[in-house]
Amino acid sequence: MKNSARILSGAQIAEAVKREVAEEIKILDYRLGLTVVRVGEDAASAVYVGNKVKTSAELGIRSEHIHLPAKTSQAELLRVVDELNARADVDGILVQLPLPKQIDENFVLERLNPEKDVDGFHPVNVGRLSQGQTALAPCTPAGVIEILKRSGIEIAGKHAVIIGRSNIVGKPMAMLLLQENATVTICHSRTVNLTEITSQADILVAAIGRPGFVRGEHIKTGATVVDVGINNVSDADFARELFDETELEKRLATIEKRGSTLVGDVNPKEAKMKAANFTPVPGGVGLLTVAMLMKNTVQAAKMRRKTD
Ligand code: NAD
Hints:
The protein is of the alpha/beta class.
């Protein structure tokens, strides 16, 4: 079997999206504002928020980062959300997840003004998306659609299989693919005969949270495989199962230096042998998420300010 997959790099596509967003921002006669609220000291959240604030600045969006202590009560957080909902200069509000245990995430997300919900997690936006109406769509699955479209991969009429049914990735991914006229199947932890289903997919999206879970046997020859997963692998032997000679050495060096290397939900060595197109981790879907957040902020501002 030859190693043939085209690697769908997210870098150029993310740059193109950001460039287009920056152009749109330049011709607005107001300054866009995005506020990111972070509660507590989750290390990964700090990195994500830092990226969002930095990219906002690069594109000319005024961004604000509100960092609240880990012991913040739900009532206190809701007060902050209410204030941001009321502020005319705030176009987008993003409450970084996860939130500390004492706070009910759903309650907080429902309190956001849906017009400012740039993460697309509010039930009103989820409902609009599922009805095929204009909606703020969750950034990661929206980024997957950008990658597919801008790489010239046909979606209409194709069988798209998603592994994962989370509110953040799996379910909105299904809705977006359906909107693009794919025939959509959602698989999850209780799916029986997973391999039988995934191996029929023209487009296979993995959003599971388990490193290298999707193997060659799950993939139809010639499929497009989109890897949403972000996992850390610290075991060198496991890394040897995942990477071919083109990247193994580099990965082992990273494990040696940093203690782990970033791996998706798909075994890249096997995916490259079976798939026609494959998104790498890192450097694939992950790069689109922040770009799509910027795009959503512009969309939110345009929709809300039109009706003000
Ligand atoms: P989640 O834990 O909420 O959901 C995982 C899903 O996988 C569940 O629906 C579950 O049913 C399914 N699953 C688990 N084990 C399974 C199995 N054995 N067989 C079939 N299905 C199984 O995770 P999530 O928030 O949807 O994230 C999924 C992955 O995507 C994670 O690795 C996460 O880090 C990554 N992620 C990446 C980005 C990005 O920007 N690239 C954004 C969000 C999430």
